Structures are given as C-alpha cells and as structure tokens.
Amino acid sequence: MKSALRSTPLLMIVPSLLLAMFIIGYPIIDLAWTSLQEVSRFGQLRGFNGWDNFAEVFSDPLFYGSLWRTVIWTVAVVGGTLLLSLPIALILNDEFYGRGLARVIIMLPWAISLTMTAVVWRWGLNGRAGLLNATLMDLHLIAEPVEWLATAPMAFATEILIGILVSIPFTTTIFLGGLSSMPQDAYEASMVDGAKRWDQLRYLTLPLMRPFINIAIVLNVIYVFNSLPIIWVMTEGGPANGTDILVTYLYKLAFRFGQLGKASAISLIMFGVLLVFTIIYVVMVMRAEDDGGAAGEASK
Amino acid sequence: MISKLKKTVIYWLLLAPLVIVILFPFAVMFVTAVRPREELFVYPPRWTFSQFRWDNFVDMWVKTNFGGALLNSLYVSVSATVLALLFSIPAAYALSRYRFPGKGLYRNFLLMTQMMSPIVLVLGLFRLMVAFGLVNNLNSLVITYAAFNMAFTIWMLQSYFNTIPRELEEAAWMDGASHYFSLVKIFLPLAVPAMVVTAIFTFINSWNEFVLALTMIRSNDDFTLPVMIFSQVAGRYQIEWHHVMAATVLATVPVAIVFSWLQRYLIRGMALGAVK
User: Fold this and answer.
1) B150 to chain A: which residues are within 8 Å by CB?
2) Residue B53: inside a domain, yes or no?
3) Does A108 sit within 8 Å of B124, measured CB to CB?
4) Which residue is closest to B1 within chain A, CA to CA?
5) CA-to-CA distance for A181 and A212, rounded, in angstroms?
6) Transmembrane residues, as ranges (chain B) (predicted)?
7) Is residue B165 domain-shared with residue B29, that is, in the same domain?
C-alpha cells in the first residue's frame, strides 16, 4: 500500500516527461549526431566527417555577420523593452481613471501572432502606399514617402522597434506580478518616516524588484534571441543578408539551400548559447525561491 | 498627494505615444481590409477611401481558402490544448501535493524545456517527423505544440493548485473517501477555472505559432492561419493587400478579444507563482 502511494506522483509525471523527451530531447541528440556527418541535400547521412561542418560554419563570413546582428538585435530589443516596461508597469500598478482600458491596450500585441503583426507592419510601412507614410505626410513631417524596408540598416532598426513593441506586454506582466507582491507595510512604514515617492521608488521598489528584473532580462534574452517571425516576414533577412540574424540564417540554410550539415552545426551552437542562459535562469529561479522562503519565514 | 484626476491626465499623456503605436496596426488592418482594391496604391498615400467594400471579406474567404485554414488552425489548437492538459494536470497535481524523489530535478527539467525554442530544434524536429511520416500532417503540429506548451501549463496549473486548500481533500479522506474520489469529486471541480484559463492561453499560443507550421506543412490545404496569411505575402509578385488584411482581421480580432478579457489572470498567475 505504502509503496503504491509512493509511486503515484512518479506515475503522474511520467507521461509529461516522456513527451518532452521525445519531442524536445530526441531532436537535440539527432542534431548533434547530424552535425558530425556529411549530409546530402535530401537529408541522407553520408558518414562522419569529423568537425567539418563546424569548420565550415566558423569560416563563413555570413555566420559572423548574422552572429553580430543577433547580438545587436538581442541587446537592443531586450534593453529597449526593459527601459519602457518598468515605467509602464509602475503606471499601470497605480490607481487612475481608465486603468483597465490602458492595461488591455498595452497587452494587445501579446494576443496577436508575431506573424500577423509583422505582415500588418510590412504593409503599414510600404514605401509607396504605406499608412505610416500617409500619417507622417499628413503631419508634414516628411515631404515624400520613405522606403522603410528597402535598405538593411533602416529595415533592421525598424524591426528592432517592432521587436520592442511586441515584447513590452510580457515584460510588463512580469513586473506587474512583482509589484503586486510588494509588501504594503514597508511602504506604509516609509510613508510614516516621511519618504518621498521618488525615494520610495529608488530605495524600496527598485531593490525589491531586482529578482523580477533579472528574470525578465533572462527570459527576454532567450525569447528574442530565438525570434524568427518578425524578420522573416518583413525582410526574410534581406536585402543581401543585411538583416539576417542566426535564426533566419539557420532557417535559410536548412530549408532553402539544403545545407543540412552546416545548419545542424549552427543549431547546436545556438543550443549551447541557449543552454548557458537557461542555466542562469534556473539558478536565478532557485535562488529567488530560497530567498522567498527565507523572507516568508522571517515575516512569520 | 496628487489628485487622482491629475494623475490620470499625466499617465495617459505618458502612455499616449505607446498606445498610438499599438493601435496603429489595427487601424491599418481595418482601413485596408474594407478599401476598394483600386485605392490600395494611391499617391500620395492616404487613410481615407471612397467606400466601404465589405465584399473584400467574401472574396478573400473564397480565394485564400480561409475556411480550410481556419478549420486546420482550430483542429490543431484544440487538440494540442487537450493533449497538453491531459499530460499536465497529473504532473501539476503531483508537484503541488506530493514530495517525491527527483522533484527538484523534474522542475528544473521543465524549466529547461520551456527555454528550448522550436526554431533551434526545427531541423531535428523536421527529421523526426520525416522518420514518422508525419510531414504535411497536422498531427505533427498537435504533438509538438503540446510538448512545447507543457512547461507553461504545468507551471500555471501548479501555481493555482497550490492555492486550493489541502484541508478540503484531507477532510474527505477522514470521512473515508478514497484518493481517487476526492480527486475527481472535490479537487478537480475546484480547479476548473484554473484549467480553463490555462487551456485558453495554450490555445492562443498554438493558434499563433508560425515556425513549426511553416516547416511541417507543405501543402496549401493543410496550412494553418499564420502560414496561410504568410503564403499570401511571401515571394509573390503581386500581393492582394486588401485580402491579406481582411484575413488578418478575421484571424486576430476574436483571439485578441478573448485574450484581453483574460490577461489579468496571467498577471495573477505571475504573482502567485512569483515567476516560477
């Protein structure tokens, strides 16, 4: 009886474990296996070729270009998102008329698939008839239409701004979750001590929000680093690979140029990078739990 | 203390630029979707147009096989959600109610899977589906979406399960109820709201997924909505933008409404789970 009870929780987690192993674990092993072999266009493995695929990746200027743009893309989108999301969360956490509506509007980009958002923006930014051009011309900010997506630097900058826009809802949600778990008595105590709102923000809110900010950084880095749809839909990495980041380059190699060996090598490199961030994340969550537990016990 | 009215004005002014940028694509969608085709490319570009052409929606529905893509998206999203919940509910219950060896390890494993994005694995997944003959089969998406959403669903469910008092079940056991009985008759009914919310978010995630659908599905008949709409703009010499926008309106607005209505549960989930 007792041993049956003990195995119950294990039986309950086994199905989820198996599914995850099968769909997420197996492909990683397959990619590692493939990356060490010569692969035909049609995916046939033609025997081991050692580290040739990796050597090819590391001697490819397009790989370095994409890598560099991945860094810019990730840092710019995550940085911009955090800078905007914290004040937004502070505003949305305060009481004011129409707060519910403001929350709904700011969360909206999250509800819509990145693909659709990117398609709509691609049209909105159209160099001839785009409605952004229409708006700016109506406001007399520009005299004639601008080709937003025709040159790589401009297209990339635009894509970064849209990346920020769609990352704000998730980040704001994390911050709102954090703000709603702030200890009210600490604020009351600081009010009694005559603290100004600004001091409260600087010495109370921000330090208490640190774990949430850290987690928002790591999660956003992971999501943004992996984000394909915006760039894929708007410019497909073009013009002339000028907006390619690693994921778009990887996708082209795998499903357009049939360079499967090289593509699996890049996948594996990206997997390694992700793994590092994931471990940082797991450690952070565990530490937050320990702190939370300690704080909880201290307050009892 | 600043008055609430004054705060309202300042806050809305601060939020205004962002609100405009968020609403801009929606305006673009609507204005283009109902615009006569001849007025898509006018110079200088302008917001206004001569008449509302509601027929655009009907034309688009027929020409793009919108109905087929809609059914595919519904099939994939509903099945993936059901599958994800079937796997997640017992796992979340185990995490919430039991101590067992390897619990910490299992949670870390879940966190890891949550971080693995489809794009990094897409080539491996494609090869897996080729091996099982599931390419061009919507079920390949059902399985993968369920797997990739599981970490999220387990975490959401667990954080809600933790708020359901254990005493209720224990009281039932005292009265001689079996574990199975207390689970089905007492625990699960209390957990229904949590399951509904989690299900809807999983549904929306699956509904919006792009990379895997683009990779696994090769024939027009099996396209899900995001891929169908993408196929209307990718590599085409002439893009029928009024049809594309009509399709995005139909594909996004219902989901956006449901999401807006439920987003506060996400915030609550984050606060409850303290971002676990």
Assistant:
1) 16, 19-20
2) no
3) no
4) A197
5) 11
6) 12-34, 74-95, 116-135, 141-161, 182-204, 241-262
7) no
- pTM for the whole structure: 0.87
**Domain of residue B20, residue span:** 4-33
ipTM: 0.87
Question: How many domains is chain B partitioned into structurally?
Answer: 2
Closest-CA distance, B15 to chain A, in angstroms, reads: 8
Domain shared by B9 and B125, yes or no: no
Find the closest chain A residue to B209 by CA distance: A113
Relative orientation angle of helices B138-161 and B103-115, to the nearest 10 degrees: 130
* Residues pairing with A39 in the sheet: A45
Q: What is the pLDDT along chain A (300 residues), one digit of tens a residue?
A: 445 556 788 888 889 999 998 998 899 999 998 888 887 777 777 777 778 888 888 888 999 999 999 999 999 999 999 999 999 999 998 889 998 899 999 988 988 889 999 999 999 998 888 889 888 888 888 888 888 888 999 999 999 999 999 999 989 988 888 888 777 777 777 777 777 777 878 788 888 888 888 888 888 998 899 889 999 999 988 788 889 999 999 999 988 888 888 999 999 999 998 888 888 888 877 777 666 544 333 333
Within-domain flag for B21: yes
| Chain B partners within 8 Å of A278 (Cβ) | 111-112, 115-116
Question: Does the residue B264 lie in any domain?
Answer: yes
Contacting residues of A for B210, CB less than 8 Å apart: 113-115, 228-229
Check whether residue B97 and residue B25 sit in a common domain. Answer: no
Contact between chains at A260 and B90 (C-beta distance less than 8 A): no
Residues of A in contact with B276 (CB under 8 A): 285, 289
Residue B264 sits at the vertex; the CA angle it makes with B258 and B265, to the nearest 5 degrees, is 85
Cα–Cα distance, A120 to B28 (Å, whole number): 7
Instruction: List all residues 6 or more positions away from B114 whose beta carbon is below 8 Å from its beta carbon.
Output: B151, B152, B155
Residue B202 sits in the same domain as residue B255? yes
Q: Is there a single domain that holds both residue B95 and residue B141?
A: yes
Q: Are residues B77 and B14 in the same domain?
A: no
The answer on B170 and B128 residing in a single domain is yes
Nearest to A121 among B25, B119, B150 (CB): B25
How crowded is residue B118: how many other Cβ atoms within 10 Å of its Cβ? 22
User: Is the residue at B46 inside a domain?
Assistant: no
